Amino acid sequence: MSGAVIVILSDINRRASSEGDNGRQNVGRSEAMSSRSPQFAMMDRYWRAANYVSVGQIYLMDNPLLREPLRAEHVKPRLLGHWGTTPGLNFIYVHLNRLIRERDLDMLFICGPGHGGPAMVANTWLEGTYSEIYPDIGRDSEGMKELFKQFSFPGGVPSHAAPETPGSIHEGGELGYALVHGFGAAFDNPDLVVACVVGDGEAETGPLAATWHSSKFLNPRTDGAVLPILHLNGYKIANPTLMGRMNDDDLRSLFIGYGYEPFFVEGSDPEPMHALMAATLDQVMERIRDIQTTARTTTGSTGLPRWPMIVLRSPKGWTGPKEVDGKKVEGFWRAHQVPVSNARDDDAHRQILEEWMRSYGPDELFDTEGRLLPEIAALAPEGTKRMGASPYANGGLLKKDLALPDWKSFAVDVPAPGGRTAEGTHILGAYLRDVVRLNAASRNFRLMGPDETSSNRLDAVFEATDRVWMEGIEPYDVHLAPEGRVMEVLSEHLCQGWLEGYLLTGRHGLFSCYEAFIHIVDSMVNQHAKWLKTSAELSWREPIASLNYLLTSHVWRQDHNGFSHQDPGFSDFVANKKADTVRLYFPPDANTLLWVADHCLRTWNRINVITAGKQPAPQWLTAQEAEGHCKAGAGIWEWASTCPADEEPDLVMACAGDVPTMETLAAVDLLVADSPGLRIRVVNVVDLMTLQARSEHPHGFSDETFDALFTKDRPVIFAYHGYPYLIHRLTYRRANHDNIHVHGFREEGTTTTPFDMAVMNQIDRFHLTLAALRWLPQLSQRSAQFSATLKKKLEEHKAYVYEHGEDMPEIRNWTWRREAGGAGVR
Amino acid sequence: MSGAVIVILSDINRRASSEGDNGRQNVGRSEAMSSRSPQFAMMDRYWRAANYVSVGQIYLMDNPLLREPLRAEHVKPRLLGHWGTTPGLNFIYVHLNRLIRERDLDMLFICGPGHGGPAMVANTWLEGTYSEIYPDIGRDSEGMKELFKQFSFPGGVPSHAAPETPGSIHEGGELGYALVHGFGAAFDNPDLVVACVVGDGEAETGPLAATWHSSKFLNPRTDGAVLPILHLNGYKIANPTLMGRMNDDDLRSLFIGYGYEPFFVEGSDPEPMHALMAATLDQVMERIRDIQTTARTTTGSTGLPRWPMIVLRSPKGWTGPKEVDGKKVEGFWRAHQVPVSNARDDDAHRQILEEWMRSYGPDELFDTEGRLLPEIAALAPEGTKRMGASPYANGGLLKKDLALPDWKSFAVDVPAPGGRTAEGTHILGAYLRDVVRLNAASRNFRLMGPDETSSNRLDAVFEATDRVWMEGIEPYDVHLAPEGRVMEVLSEHLCQGWLEGYLLTGRHGLFSCYEAFIHIVDSMVNQHAKWLKTSAELSWREPIASLNYLLTSHVWRQDHNGFSHQDPGFSDFVANKKADTVRLYFPPDANTLLWVADHCLRTWNRINVITAGKQPAPQWLTAQEAEGHCKAGAGIWEWASTCPADEEPDLVMACAGDVPTMETLAAVDLLVADSPGLRIRVVNVVDLMTLQARSEHPHGFSDETFDALFTKDRPVIFAYHGYPYLIHRLTYRRANHDNIHVHGFREEGTTTTPFDMAVMNQIDRFHLTLAALRWLPQLSQRSAQFSATLKKKLEEHKAYVYEHGEDMPEIRNWTWRREAGGAGVR
């Protein structure tokens, strides 16, 4: 699109913002749009009602309708609300209500600005959804009183949109994710319009700044629309905002650069603002329908559309006190939280509050019972068209189970343990390809990843689909298409946020990521975990599909990337979250990976973290064995042990993770060769949460089961994929915990060969064997020579890899040979 | 700035990019700038040398100068390099070298693109810095052989810029932070020009997208310049890039919107590209000097300048193989990593490699000894003007200790333990104000925070300085100025990244943040910790000032924000990092907070995390007591105990954190009232790392010291600020670990009063007391009635707060009264 076209498209708004009167001249093109129309007068009353109910939540615990003079005991003792952004949100909400009614829209409202809670609660209460969900908070004066009291009150609701808020899909709390959730919601929901309000505070965050590019992934043929409304009220807690102080030319240039057609709505006088907002919303909806109609009635590509967005400038704390104690409040950051403090004890402040609340004219808004007057209430949409009642905001209502292929049909044939190698994620790719195929018509499954689907060897999915790509496609490009099911962008934030939005509106997905860099989204996962925990306690919120991670390119195989790419700590982070929400899986080979992935895609309301390598690795279990093992979560590998499972061993060699499992088995080989009579039990852990006490986690083994695996008093050498502390933490309540010696990642790494990396962190076969010798003192006495041999091996290894750049042949070519004459009991 | 002016400013480049020939027509304005000038021919040879040395690193382990035909054994067995971005980086580097020489610049090079390691290593080797730092890698054929071999090789260097790379300030590994580090480096370095290359992959990340706004914080009078070079080579690992596929109009609009004046350099033919790049660099340097000169010779504000930036479009894998096996490589993503695979075993591939390397004409570049020919080498700057030798890239060389005030002069007077209340961060604010004042002339200290300096009650700093603000300032604004020392933006990523860049170039700072949201920068902290760990192992890297956090508005006081704002897990995350790098401090009151903050500002190469509340809270220790207690890291509070410190107690009540400490003391009050003879020892922990075994952490107590505090066998009720597991993890090697019962945050929270929050998580006085009764069975028998009383209190409490919205008076007004007749031994 050339610059000239952009100028024409934006012309009306350019005038609107440059004619000195905040563009009020460019409206009034029809009777309905006159700024003095009865419709706008009624909308203004609705807006005042919302503002009144918002202020009431912040301040009052009694006398909600001000039917008597405001006294100290009516005011909450602790004032903890947030006013600043609220009137602007109320303004937007009432205007979107008009749009929904007039055009019969399915609209989802996303409330990005921090602490917009009062507005969301006020509007959903006014439209009736709040009382339907929470019948104890009725649509009358008693309900209003409860509504007011519960806000920022013990056992009540927080000052931002939360799971408890009808119509919300988790835009409150930590800022930055409103718009990315909005796009996630719009993908594959062609009938949906997501109205997404972005605050100018939030607009300063990194994730939000990148999210604007998401329109380059939105397909007008098969996806819904996102209407971003950048709400510039100019201030954060105690500061101007960067965008609030940018001029309209720069803002216009910025959003044109991002790919949008910006429209400006600016002012502080309500009457012309109503007219301007309504006219602008009509215009942008026309634009959206034009884009969609063109795309949906044309065959072939219609290119990347230039979607509209709105820049709304309105004063912070709009319609609130202009000044308090001689200091500017409205239109300044002092309006951010509680504009009039201490209103319980300070008579003058309480008077300001009362005048402020009465300025909305509550008697013109609510009847004697405290009900919104019917002619005002009639402005709201009805039924599920109300934004608070949108099923899209309670995605579990819309969720359909995925059609899943039989994972066993992708299983690797494993004639004997270690008898062949395979690339786990490559095998999984074929399974995922069929997941894509089976759900192609439903369009309810997407794969996310930061440009790593191929690098992580899930390529087979490209036999069934492509990467989403709306920008230009060159003849030599491969696997790019507007309809793709794979979403790749070099931003873990966008992958995470899109997927969250997609899941929250009732769909399914998987995020594959380099293990080390998933920490980029720690805080987003944190917020999602909190959302799931709280949602699960709300009977009206239906379960949504689980948030599934495949972490690959993991810590033990960062051969060229080195230390910066080596971090297995995401599991530790996730393990802090509410137990019932979290699952950590470490499948040791391809068939177990298949079972785990299939299982995760069938679950709901969870965060499933699967860690599995992409490199060729030995395979241990047949499909049938994998199924039994994974269902148990952990178990004795009798075939790898040197004594029957029901006999007490001298030593337990435990492992979790693909590389640790291989090294453990190789260590068993070494130990057996040295001490053929040693009674070694091998325990493999797939589901890490089995280690935790049952009182701590629903997957936790009973003490009996745990002790049956790990014994009560035998040494356990535990080779673990991640930081060793997590194993200690999960097992510290177990009888045998003092004897569990964990080898894991210890923040030692560099550019190296695969085995050398293990050696650095002492989870290699030689160190594991030395550990076994150490904790079996009678053996270490006998095996002084063996220890010396192992240490010599370590030196040889180091010299070899530093010279040749690859592992010693005996390491590289090692295979599990116990079948061929070892002491295995299989 | 109006749109018209922008068009004029950008006019030359608009033509350059729109005239169909990649703008080559707009150069050649002087003889020196002719595309055929001898200077450009020589620069082209330098570039070819850098490309040759880059390819050699990826492929060769012998025959570096190709003085004999390339044979299989010359090629590395594992090819793990990255070619795609490298030739473009080499191109930029040689052009910046010219600029430095001609203008005598102090320039820092920041290499944002992923896997630009070969280019950085090649250029610093060519200019001589590499061999000065690593004398075993000389500037001859033997050195070249070693240089080649070490790349992506065991014990060698990774494929991205790393601590080992001369001239780097930690732009490698995880992507997104190049530009924010660049701005951090430029603040308060008025003579520095930071040339910052941003890859088009990295440009998709959230942090990078927000960072462009950093120019709104750059003061041309007192800061240096940042020259962003957005390097569009069009592809990531297996995908086009979003910006690579944007047209120049949209790109221009985007960067004008961000506040820059963009210049375009586009093409693939080296000859005209040299001329265009040189002319453009001259032009942007003139622009930078104009901006700086204007600002530095004018009094009063000169406003927010429009800084120049460059968009460089050049092919991915430029000058590499056009095609391999019939597939497009140059100018496509197949050039990303190793364009010609399997070159050791595949003769045809090895031939392509050899032809490719010989295409650079090594014999025209290096003499028979493998030394760069002197006439080529002469193009590089000299001494510390070489970008690999810039002292700014080894900030410890420039670091000066802060001038620090006497912290005791800010201490709270504490006549008796609990005898008064104070707001810890408010007290600290006064200390920080004087830190600002004492270092005002040095301009080497900044405070960062996401709009929370006031909210976190550090307001006193505004008596000494302001917030940095370069955009417009309104008459009613407060504490905004271009020269401010406080940096606020609603992006934890920017705060973190600016501070990292500031520290890495030899300065000091403190980042104050809401505790819950510091997780936003987990992955950045992770990378910084890895940088510090590796840097500390390099003798040539001088220590830098520590990265200091003040985490406040913490989990126990999110009264209105609720669950989304409640997460104390950053400590867990940080505790996974290399022990010697990390310190976790939980000062229980204001005087201990002062000591800890003062201490942290004196340290280097560490990550110090201070967690402390901002709310009014009881004060426990005098300045002198605080000093002794903090120096020890943890200790017995004999005055709060009911038996002398040297006598064995029945029970240890331990605490870490301000709220847990208060609740522990209140629990002691309750226990004493019920069981006056009970021998209770109170242990307070300030430095959490003292809990860890000395073998694990340098601050760890010896077992003797630990046992002397916590006993070997008495029950320990440990009230901890964060997730309880961390205490278990840190103490699991201690003799008494089975008896340590930790109460901490358990992912249970909502909107509540302060005390109710503690109750939910059972770290309140009632639950702590109940725990003590439980673990002293003889007591719990005797005290069935007492337990019932406590449980009734909990019920009363709940009813009270749900009705009144504030804590029961007996909780709210509780003070430590042991002085007035308790059993305390002080």
Automatic annotation (TrEMBL), chains A, B:
Coiled coil among keywords: no
Chain coiled-coil ranges: none
Domain (Xylulose 5-phosphate/Fructose 6-phosphate phosphoketolase C-terminal): residue spans on this chain: 614-816
Family annotation (Pfam families): XFP, XFP_C, XFP_N
Top-rank EC class of the record's enzyme: lyase
Xylulose 5-phosphate/Fructose 6-phosphate phosphoketolase N-terminal domain boundaries: 40-397
Cofactor requirements of the protein: thiamine diphosphate
EC annotation from Swiss-Prot or TrEMBL: 4.1.2.-
Presence of keyword ATP-binding: no
Keywords: Lyase, Thiamine pyrophosphate
UniProt record similarity statement: Belongs to the XFP family.
Database matches in PANTHER family: PHOSPHOKETOLASE-RELATED (PTHR31273)
Protein name, as recorded: Probable phosphoketolase
Organism: Mesorhizobium argentiipisi
